[in-house]
Structure formats: structure tokens, C-alpha cells
Design brief:
The protein is an alpha+beta fold and about 775 residues long. It contains 20 helices and 31 strands.
Amino acid sequence: MRGAWAASAALVVLLAPLAGARAQAFDFRPPPASADAALAVAMRDLAARVLPVYQENHPERYLSYLSALQVVAGNDAAADASRRTLSERRRANGAAGTRIGEAVVYDVYVHARAIEAPDHLAFVPAFEKSYRDIVGHLGDLDAYAVTSWHGRSIAVLEDSLRDLLHRQQGRTSIGLADAVNLVWTYFAFDAARAFDPLVDRLAAEDEQRRYGQGEDARIRTPDGASIAAAIVRPRGGAAPTSAERMPTLLIFTIDARARAAAREIAAHGYAGVVALARGADERAGHAMPWQRDGSDAHAVIDWIAHQPWSDGRVAMIGDGYAGFAAWAAARRAPPALKAIATTNAMAPGIDFPMQGNIFHVDAYRWAIQAGTAATPPGAPAELDDTAWNSLQRDWYASGRPVRDLDDMLGRPSRAFHRWLNHPSYDLFWQDMVPAGADFAAIGMPVLTLAGFYADGAVGALHYFTQHQRFNPRADDTLLAGPFDDAAATRDAAPDLRGLPIEASAQVDLDALRYAWLDHVLKGAAKPPLLADRVNVAVPGGEPGSGAWRHVPSIAALGDASLRLFLDPAPVLNGHALKSAPPSGVAGKEPAYVALRVDLADRHDVNWTPPLRLVRKEIQARHGVSYFSDPLPQPLEVGGFIAGRLDVMVNKMDMDLRATLYELLPGGDYVQVFDPPCEFRASYASDRAHRRLLHAGERQQLAFRCERLASRRFRAGSRIVFVIGVNKRPDQEIDYGTGKDVREESVDDADDPLKIRWYATSYVDIPMRK
């Protein structure tokens, strides 16, 4: 389900201030509680006084808020007329900028209230009649949008209303804009609590009419396993004719909750199939993620191609695990597989359960959720956030090896330990996804969607770059922008964790994916945003200057490289980034910055990574910050940052992380990508083979970040590069002994880690001249 309509409904006014609001105030003393019966009377009186003076320059917004004012004031017939006019405008404008689901839900509610009296109906039958009349006449996709916006809880709306009432306490008046905001929020809450109990049943009735009950199938694989699949398709005859057969979109996943996505696919005019990895529907502790999914997905695709409702063409879609499965299947080249479209696709061994060969502790939690750990009697099938955070803190504080995690909880996972047994990107991982010649053989159209702020971007970009490397003529399309992992399952928003998103980059990735599939499978026009092989947003610059680059390759995003050296000279609260290394004296050791990290220290057990992407200050936690001079002119950055670290370290290994920021002239730090780049020094040159450092010797360490950087830095801004040691409670700790890191514990910490960052170290930043 694409999210709760309730959340957006409560916030829409807050995000769009009234253009015509005048400096006018109304006497108003509401009761403090949303459940107080006196609130309805107070809100009705306020709405009646606001109505005659309310103005708004945006026609659709005006009609939406006007209808809320009219309902709360008690004039349901006028509100219904306003909603009808609004609906007509939506149709005339192609619903541009309108959340169709949210809008239609309110159309239904207001019309139900309007027909209660003239039709002599109570609210429940009136709402049922209104829902069937309005939603029943929508197309499948619009009807799906209505039902998918239905929220599971009214709590979000009530919290918003309670917050506004709290702000009003102690005041005797309210301004016009605040009054309209409050009336809308009250209207949304009051409507939701009235129709919320009714919508699920009515939606199910409507979906039954459109799609039938759906089907469940058990698909046999060549080795005798059984794959559970949910199938939903637009209604057709019992024995479809060739004209009624249609292409199929397949999601192959380990998440049993994804079954509902089959209906979304059907709403877009395809047969929808969601197949579950073997064992995923049983949760018996024997699921083995990744290992058989490519061949199992191949079997499902072959089965689909022979169904009477299939036209023989299958495309695989999905984000995360489902994205991995699409690539794993493509490696085996099933004849019926005609395209794959993935978002932040998982790449086992590349981005999960380890990134940069550093094992992520939450892989164990995921192993439990994926059904790889037996569930003891009375134990929950999943760990909630509280239980998981407690276990993670206890593990970090104890200093025990990462392999002891499941022992601490008492829920062993064979898969978890199998992953730990392969810290290198060896044949165990390489056998799961395409590699080398496998990529060369994949010729079908591929769409890759990735976000600058998505955990899964590393995997997505790995697939794309490797496919381009081994098959330069591949029909690949990449779109990357300021998105996070959740962007594939929600509407585009103007803000991401405090980072303003330009309107041009507020992309509905779900809609874009279906538009591309329509182009590939149905001959529709190609979405303009996918104009070239590589399509990357370039945020930043002056407000309103957001742009897109459409180029044939990632390398073409930048036609030059800015090399900046890590100079020890003090700048702000760190050191300098310079275009040349400081001049030294022959035969003498270059200047350096010293860093000392106590790997045994656990005072940071409660540390969590900052969420906001725009901050007033940054902390180089266990690291060093380097600042460039203010830029004399704007600088467009695009591509993968890389560099060479000239270091001396007293250990045989260390885990590092690197981050890039823009320090704006006004003092805000903007993070260019997140999470930061992270890599184990012994694998920096080759993720498949470990090469230990030489303790106490000066040596060079080349690195390349696997996260895409794209941003237009303003004139007067500074480039900020932060490099440091990766020591945190949510990842394994490399104590630098050179032993197998999964076996290391705090007893191996010994002396603190000591690093010298020499001034001959540098970072290369791809730029566009």
C-alpha cells in the first residue's frame, strides 16, 4: 500500500500557505481536547465566520478548502457543489498536481453528507451509495489510487488536530490563514473517523468487481520445490482470447507482505504476479535468501508464459530484494523475460549484508525477518525497534565478536553465519548475480532507479556500471536523484530529511517506472525524463535552479576532475583542501594530520547517525574535516569521487568512511550523498581479495566511492571532505589485528588506532567545466 492518505491530508495546508490571506483575526477559544463535544460547535461557528472572507488565488486549492469550510459550517449541499466543480477542473487539467486518491475520498464523503437528507438516508448507506457511484465510475488506476491512499489509522490526523489546538490555548483570537488550516485539519479528522470503518469493505467490493478474487498458485521448480504466487489481473473471460492476453509484471521477493502489489500492477493494465522466495511464506527458519532465487524466478517466468492469460511476455520489477531477483533471473536469460525495472536493487555481497566489506549488524535482524532464524515458542517473528536497539547496544557495549549476536538473543541463524563466513566478495556472492560475461549476455531493456540518499544505491549502481562495462551497447537507462530507499513507495515530497527538493526533482518513481514499462511493452512514448542512457538530477545552486543532466554515460556527467590535497593547515574547525600539496623538504617526512581512535571505548554506545541532510554543524566523528577555499564561481559535481590516501597506521587493517558536503555561504552544511562511503582498507583495491596493511610503514591507499555525487555548488560555498574511522554501534568493528574480523573482540583492541594523514593524500572530485 503506497502510504496513508491521512498523513498528507493533514499536512497539505501547512505546505501551501494561503496566497490571499489577509491580516484578519477572529475571536476563538476552542476546548483543548479533540474529543471534547464542544469542539464541533466551536469549529462550526469559526467556519461560518471565515467563509465570507476566505480568498485564495489557486483555483483548485480554493475549492478544496472552501468545501471543507462549507462542510464544517453545516452547508453540505454547497460543499458538494464545490467538490463537483473541483472534480471537473481536475479532469480538465488531467489531475495535474492533484493526489487523486485523497481528492476522491473527500468527494465521496462530502457527497454522502449532501444526499443524507434529500434521499432519507443515514450516513452509512449514504456513504456506501456515494462510494459506489463515484469510485465505481473511475478507471482501474484511479480507483486503485483511492483505495491505496486509505490509511490504517486516524492517529496521524488526530495528532495534527491536537497540536493545532494546543497552539491555540491561552489565545483569544486566530488569524485567517491559521483558521483555515485548523478548519481543514478538523474536517479531515472528522471525515476520517466517520468513513474509516467503511472503506475497507467497499474497496474490497470494488476490487472484486474489477479483478475477481485473484488467484493463488503453487509453482513447481525443476528440483521439486514449490513457489507460492499471488496473481491478480483485470477481469476477462474464463478462457481469454489472444486479444485479451496481456503482458505480465512479476515481483519475486522474500517479503510475504508484498502480495498486495499484484493488485497495483493489475490496476496499471498488466497481469500482476507476486512470487515468494522458497520458504518465505512459511517463516520456519529455513529460508536461504539469494541462493536459489535466480533459478526459481526463471521457473516462475516459464510458468507465466504458458498461462492462457499471458501473451508470453514478462517484465520483472521491484525495489530492494525484488530488484536483486530481477538481475538474478536476467542472468539465466529466460526467453519470456523482456525487461527489468528496478529501484535501489540489492546486490548481495556488494551493498548487503556488507558494504565495502564491512558487515552491517542489522543484517542479523533482517535474517530474522526473512525467516532464516527459527522462532522459539512465544518469541515474536520479528524484532521491533525497541528490542533491536537494545540488542545492538548490548552487543556493542559488550565488545563481543559480531558472530555472537544470535547467541546473545538465543535465536540462531544458519544464514547469518554463512554470510559471516564470506567476508570477501568471493564465489559464494558472485554466483548469485551476473558477473563479467553474464552481463555481456543480458540484452533486454533495463531501467535502473537510484537515490543519492538510499542505502540501496550502491547495489543499483553496481549493476548499472557493470552492465555498461561488459555490454556497452546494452539498452540501459539510469535515473538518479535526491531520493531515499522509500521513494519508490511514496509520492514525491518537497523536503527530504530537511533538504529542500526542487520541483523538477520531485519525481513519482512508481509512475515513471510504469510509464517506461508502457513504452517497452505497449509501444507508448518514452518518458521525457529518460531522454538519454544516464539521467541525473543536479540539485543545489541558487533556489529554483535545479536541473537534470541527460548524458550517454556516468563518466560524461563530469568532463574534468578537481584534485584537492589534504593539507594540515588549519581552516575553520578542520584543515585545508588545496589544489597542490604543500612544498616539502627533500628527504624529510611530509606534513600530516594525526588521528587517534580508541577502539575499546564504548562511551558512544547510544550514538545514532544524524538524520538531517542539512545541518548547522557537522562532527568529524573519529575523523578529520578538510575545507576548500570559498569557490570563486559555481561548481557542478557529477560522478564518483575517488582518491589516494597517503597514510601511516599502527594496525594491519582499519575501516574507513568518507563524506562530501557543501558548506553554504550562510553556514549550512548540505550532505551530498548519504550514507557515507565506507570501505575496509584491506579490500580497498579489490573487494574479492584481502591485502593487509603494513603496520608502522607509510603506504598509499587508493579508494573509489560507490555512491553517486551530483550537485551544483554555489559561488562562495566551500567543499568539505570528511575522512575517518568507521567505528559505530551498528557495524562490525575492525580492531586491526589482521585476523578474521568476525572473530575479533574488544580484547583485540590493545593500543588505540593511530593514523597519519599525509598532505600528499588527495581526493578527486568529478566536475563539469
